[in-house]
């Protein structure tokens, strides 16, 4: 049974993509229905695989019928089955959201006939990476999902997306080349790329060679997972993509990197030679990522930085290399995939409702759309790790594992993790208090995207559109410089703040309902369209999933612990590939 | 069988040249760098397969004389992937050229915007903490006072003027809002 099911998560989306491409141009409805059906069946298969793998343990399928060390194998163990289930769930939610968005937008912005096939190919690549039983197949899985992601990230081909896409593509290409070179060296050293065989043979190599190979693989995977010194590409490239694309990228792609790190650290190099390096990297990722999030003012960028920051938790758990640490990391991966995707979907809804994702330009969303406020609030608190939610459970598991480890470095990391959690709460609650909670009059509503571009710098701004924001120059630029301007630097800084505050309130109060100004309520009133039901529905479903993770935390943590046990043991994986025989 | 020194030298040279080109801001050079790096990696895979031998075809050569076929299969896959992605990158470069008439990598504007901001956001300041003369126009405590010394001018305009007089030469910050429309009244 498991042998029949195993190739399906790769096969179904690929065939579905081909079919979706064929019907795409003329029958967009058929295409949508097809992609949803395909992903729903992938989800069903993945759930089946998880149940079977959890009951019977790992199993391997030699694809193409070649004997094991020669042919390609797909391996399902608890870890890969668990990742498949989460990936399929998230992908289905995002796809429904995208369908809703496409239906609401009239498909103008995104060429929908391309979107669905590419999305399915992306999922096929993700599934292939999770199931791959040899290093080169893992590389191919990465390439499938990356190539699909290049297309999705640059959908529509606007200048901003091309700019962001180029950074993303070049960084990904570099990491892929590193990975490929590492595969070449691994093959040269051991004469195989089969992971189960590697697990045995790599241990026989001299220690220096092992560390070299391990660090090359880790660097390649850390780029993909956005671990700190290698994470700068992520907040730069993700926020510009269409909302559903960002959501699925944020949820899935970095976690494929994390998955690869887990495999490298547990299956291939269990010696723990680089654990300490990984711990430092995890600490830096958590702290620097979250400090970046605190500094940002755009919801999507804040979320991108929290994404980077929380990767640190997972790397922390992996680097502990204990059963509890790995279990915590696995649970956190599952939680974070769901939560980050949901939050990016909500950010897409916020952009739709408020016309922007900049928290300085938003306001009053809680009164404008209470449902949206709830949809944001629940996963946001979950992300920050407020007690009843799964984020708290995951963090608690990781911190307990860190304390149980006993060394001083894990204790430092535990402290760093707690600080990160608090800072996450700070960053998230700033979004909440500004975009949702403050009265709308405080937010300048008629700043549009071209005004935002004008903020960026005069030489980069597009031609000024005729509008109130551009008709009049600010007065202070025309006034002559007075004689007695403040001299000392601290005074300048303090007075600049005051000036900012005064101008801010001057504008805000000028357009408040109290005054009967020309630019009063009527001009500021946004044409309030109701949010499309399908989009809200799919986001709400994802929120329910994230809350469901809390409700199902017990069984889920059980699976994670058993998977962590398998990973530390290594024999289930190896003997599933070689059917218990002696590894050649 | 003595190992050849030619392959490592070529691989090293290709890697060096590729990295150099990759560091350029011009996208075409970056693409060329990527291609060189790809070729270097393919050669690395080839050399990982051990010494050269006869073509690995059964009946044509004995297994001992064959070269290792697996790296060749890997290289073929890698070449196809590199080729496809290079084509995509070329399309991206063309698109970038069409859009902005340049093919260099641009700066991230949002980053610049965030970097240029002042350290305190205006709406983080509680006006009640400020000295009365620093409080905002039309703040509850200062409302009367503002109307009093405002020379009977429109209070907003008055604020703008006073600000301009007091803080000229100070760079603006993130709450650089459009001027009020009521000035024309």
TrEMBL record, chain A:
Q: Which domain of life is it from?
A: Bacteria
Location in the cell reads: Cell membrane; Membrane
From start to end residue, where is composition biased (Basic and acidic residues)? 470-480
Keywords of this entry: Cell membrane, Membrane, Transmembrane, Transmembrane helix
Principal localisation: membrane
Q: Which PANTHER family match?
A: NA(+)_H(+) ANTIPORTER SUBUNIT D1, NADH DEHYDROGENASE
What NCBIfam families does the entry give? PRK12665.1
Concerning its family, UniProt says: Belongs to the CPA3 antiporters (TC 2.A.63) subunit D family.
Q: What is this protein called?
A: Multisubunit sodium/proton antiporter, MrpD subunit
UniProtKB/TrEMBL annotation, chain B:
Note the superkingdom of the native organism.
Bacteria
The UniProt keyword set, sorted, is: Cell membrane, Membrane, Transmembrane, Transmembrane helix
The way it spans or sits in the membrane comes to: Multi-pass membrane protein
Stretches of Acidic residues bias are at: 121-131, 148-157
Q: Where in the cell is it found?
A: Cell membrane
Primary location group: membrane
Membrane spanning segments where?
6-23, 30-53, 73-94
Family, according to the entry, reads as follows: Belongs to the CPA3 antiporters (TC 2.A.63) subunit C family.
Q: What is this protein called?
A: Multisubunit sodium/proton antiporter, MrpC subunit
Q: Tell me what organism the protein belongs to.
A: Blastococcus tunisiensis
């Amino acid at each position: 049974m498991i042998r029949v099911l195993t190739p399906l998560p790769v096969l179904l989306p690929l065939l579905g993509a081909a079919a979706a491409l064929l019907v795409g141009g003329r029958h967009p409805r058929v295409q949508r229905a097809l992609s949803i059906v395909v992903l729903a069946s992938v989800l069903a298969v993945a759930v089946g695989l998880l149940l079977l793998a959890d009951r019977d343990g790992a199993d391997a399928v030699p694809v193409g019928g070649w004997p094991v060390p020669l042919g390609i194998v797909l391996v399902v163990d608890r870890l890969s089955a668990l990742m498949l289930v989460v990936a399929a769930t998230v992908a289905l939610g995002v796809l429904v959201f995208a369908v809703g968005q496409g239906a609401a937008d009239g498909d103008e912005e995104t060429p929908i006939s391309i979107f669905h096939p590419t999305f399915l190919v992306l999922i096929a690549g993700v599934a292939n990476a999770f199931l791959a039983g040899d290093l080169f197949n893992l590389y191919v899985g990465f390439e499938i999902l990356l190539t699909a992601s290049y297309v999705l990230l640059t959908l529509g081909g606007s200048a901003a997306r091309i700019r962001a896409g180029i950074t993303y593509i070049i960084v990904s290409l570099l990491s892929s080349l590193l990975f490929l070179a590492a595969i070449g060296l691994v093959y040269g050293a051991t004469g195989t790329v089969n992971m189960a065989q590697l697990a045995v043979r790599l241990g026989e190599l001299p220690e220096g060679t092992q560390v070299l190979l391990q660090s090359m693989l880790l660097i390649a995977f850390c780029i993909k997972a956005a671990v700190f010194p290698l994470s700068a590409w992520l907040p730069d490239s993700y926020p510009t993509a269409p909302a559903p694309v960002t959501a699925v990228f944020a949820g899935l792609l970095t976690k494929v990197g994390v998955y690869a790190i887990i495999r490298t650290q547990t299956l291939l190099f269990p010696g723990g030679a680089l654990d300490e390096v990984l711990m430092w990297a995890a600490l830096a990722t958590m702290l620097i990522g979250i400090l970046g999030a605190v500094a940002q003012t755009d919801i999507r960028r804040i979320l991108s930085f929290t994404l980077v920051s929380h990767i640190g938790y997972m790397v922390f758990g992996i680097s502990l290399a204990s059963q509890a640490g790995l279990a915590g990391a696995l649970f956190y991966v599952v939680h974070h995939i769901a939560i980050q995707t949901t939050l990016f979907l909500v950010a897409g809804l916020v952009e739709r409702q408020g016309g922007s994702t900049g928290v300085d330009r938003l306001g009053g969303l809680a009164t404008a759309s209470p449902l949206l406020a709830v949809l944001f609030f629940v996963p946001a608190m979950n992300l920050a790790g407020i007690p009843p939610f799964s984020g708290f459970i995951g963090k608690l598991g990781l911190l307990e594992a860190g304390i149980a480890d006993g060394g001083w470095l894990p204790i430092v990391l535990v402290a760093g993790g707690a600080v990160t959690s608090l800072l996450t709460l700070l960053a998230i609650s700033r979004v909440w208090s500004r975009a949702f909670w403050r009265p709308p009059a405080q937010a300048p509503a008629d700043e549009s995207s071209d005004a935002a571009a004008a903020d960026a710098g005069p030489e980069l701004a597009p031609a000024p559109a005729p509008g109130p924001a551009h008709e009049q120059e600010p007065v202070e630029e025309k006034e002559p410089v007075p004689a007695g301007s403040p001299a000392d630097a601290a005074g300048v800084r303090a007075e600049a703040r005051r000036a900012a505050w005064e101008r801010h309130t001057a504008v805000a109060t000028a357009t408040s309902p109290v005054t009967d100004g020309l630019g009063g309520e009527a001009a500021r009133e946004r044409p309030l369209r109701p949010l499309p039901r399908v989009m809200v529905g799919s986001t709400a479903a994802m929120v329910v999933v994230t809350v469901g993770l809390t409700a199902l935390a017990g069984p889920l943590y059980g699976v994670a612990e058993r998977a962590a046990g398998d990973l530390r043991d290594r024999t289930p994986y190896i003997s599933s590939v070689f059917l218990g025989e002696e590894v050649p | 069988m003595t190992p050849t020194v030619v392959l490592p030298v070529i691989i090293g040279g290709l890697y060096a040249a590729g990295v150099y080109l990759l560091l350029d801001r011009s996208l075409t050079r970056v693409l060329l760098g990527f291609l060189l790096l790809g070729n270097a990696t393919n050669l690395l895979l080839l050399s990982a397969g051990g010494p050269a031998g006869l073509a690995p075809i059964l009946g044509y050569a004995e297994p001992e004389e064959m070269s290792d076929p697996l790296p060749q299969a890997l290289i073929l896959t890698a070449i196809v992937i590199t080729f496809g992605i290079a084509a995509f990158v070329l399309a991206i470069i063309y698109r970038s050229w069409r859009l902005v008439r340049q093919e260099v990598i641009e700066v991230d504007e949002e980053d610049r915007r965030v970097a240029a901001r002042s350290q305190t956001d205006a709406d983080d300041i509680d006006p009640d903490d400020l000295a009365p003369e620093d409080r905002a126009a039309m703040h509850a405590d200062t409302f009367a006072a503002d109307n009093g010394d405002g020379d009977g001018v429109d209070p907003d305009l008055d604020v703008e003027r006073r600000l301009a007089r007091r803080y000229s030469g100070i760079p603006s910050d993130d709450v650089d809002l459009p001027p009020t429309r009521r000035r024309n009244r």
